[in-house]
Specification:
Helices cover 58% and strands 7% of the residues. By secondary structure, it is mainly alpha-helical. The strands form two sheets. A two-stranded antiparallel sheet has the order 1-2. A two-stranded antiparallel ribbon has the order 3-4. A hairpin with a 2-residue loop joins β1 (18-23) and β2 (26-32). α2 (33-58) runs antiparallel to α4 (98-124) and α5 runs antiparallel to α6. It is elongated, with a radius of gyration of 23 Å.
Length: 253
């Protein structure tokens, strides 16, 4: 929520700030920073909503006995266990791991959405572009051999998480063909992968939040780059689209 809030503030503040849009890494048509930030915001919000849905589906009680028949038990025992643990009750699902894989995929998607933001900011922070920069933090972002260098270290953390997360999610999907009623290996591999995915997503959120909240925007550089591209200044309906995105987020909240 904090990253979404910061992105909403950025989008609203720069709803009419023109900048150069880029497609295939090349100059395209004019947009606004507000439109770019609202796209970041909706990407994160959609990914967060997906995570919440998948978490609700995956975090449920599992009690079925050795082969899922509740032999020696009753469904009442499973219901009481769910109540005691504060989990959603469920029929035995030991060999059905789709919900677990869905949770892992949702975490990877959320981390990827954060990585998209970090990647854009890192590109905007290139010295020859100069449109944005991470906030200055004592002891971070400098270079031991190039004193004038200002590295996007927060973005670097987020991007490294976004690189690692898909492989972990793929491992969970690979474990879906569970053998018979209890698999020798698939479900045992899930816990460390899920733990790592939660760590990566949390770390990416923690690293990106101060970057967005303290992002230094150089509107003069944006104007200069836009003028140099020679693509005019018509940003279309960017301001209205930004307002619609902000209204959509408020409705969801």
């Amino acid at each position: 929520l904090a990253v979404g809030d910061a992105l909403a503030v950025l989008a609203e503040a720069h709803a009419q700030t023109p900048m150069l849009g880029r497609t295939l890494m090349q100059a395209a048509q004019p947009i606004t920073l507000g439109l770019k930030a609202s796209g970041w915001m909706l990407g994160v919000e959609d990914a967060r909503a997906r995570f919440e849905r998948e978490a609700t589906a995956a975090i449920r009680v599992q009690l079925g006995g050795p082969v899922g028949t509740l032999a020696g038990l009753t469904s009442r025992v499973a219901d009481l266990m769910a109540l005691d643990l504060g989990l959603a009750p469920a029929l035995p699902w030991h060999a059905q791991r789709e919900a677990v894989a869905g949770l892992g995929a949702a975490l990877a998607i959320l981390t990827g959405a954060l990585g998209k933001i970090a990647g854009d900011i890192a590109l905007m922070a290139q010295r020859e572009v100069g449109e944005a920069a991470e906030p200055r933090v004592e002891g971070r972002g400098g270079s031991s051999s190039m004193p004038g260098k200002r590295n996007p270290t927060g973005c670097q953390v987020v991007l490294s998480a976004a690189v690692r997360a898909p492989g972990l999610a793929a491992g969970l999907v690979a474990g879906l063909p569970q053998a018979h009623e209890r698999d020798p290996g698939g479900w045992q591999a899930e816990a460390p992968a899920l733990a790592a995915l939660f760590e990566l997503t949390h770390g990416a959120l923690a690293a990106l939040r101060p970057v967005v909240e303290g992002l230094e925007v150089d509107t003069a550089a944006m104007a200069r780059n836009l003028a140099a591209a020679g693509v005019g200044g018509d940003v279309g309906h960017a301001a209205e689209l930004t307002r619609q995105a902000l209204a959509q987020r408020r409705e969801r909240s």
